[in-house]
């Protein structure tokens, strides 16, 4: 029996495997006699010589033999007591949390191990709780009902809102009245030795106090309603 693939296998052997039986290529070029090794041919060529320049800051010179160090300087600081006080008053360092996962005592960082719960990694972290949303809706609804109630009462009572010009005019009038009452109060006698004088002084003080209260109310509240008289 002769295989029909004998010729194919023989060609493959000559084509691929026969060329790899030697160390290196099968055919080598013969070196030329002129390419012999010359003296200093493999030495590295150095770069051209440059002048050295010192650019760094020089250290201070060595002191002379005639120079004497400063003597007699002593520190009154008690380093022993100072160090002891620093240790006593210092805050103790907290030990770093670790965990041991085998009997040989290998220590690992507990913070990055995943064993400690991190709330910032929760799915609902930073999301407003449902009960707060519900409470906000209730508060909003109650505010809307209160506003509707106020509007209804204002409509029933036929309240009128003072404009900014009217409010400013009333405020200036109150201040002017207070100045007049204050001027009259300043013109009172120094000695209050009679009942009519005491009554007049008390009346002026009450008027000034009432005007100050009205001025404060107008300055505090920007929106003012008044009832229409029928």
Automatic annotation (TrEMBL):
The keyword Ubl conjugation does not apply. The keyword Cytoplasm applies. GO terms for cellular component: acrosomal vesicle; axonemal microtubule. InterPro entries: Enkurin_dom, Enkurin_domain-protein. PROSITE patterns: ENKURIN. It is found in: Cytoplasm, Cytoskeleton, Cilium axoneme. This is Enkurin domain-containing protein. It comes from Muntiacus reevesi (Reeves' muntjac).
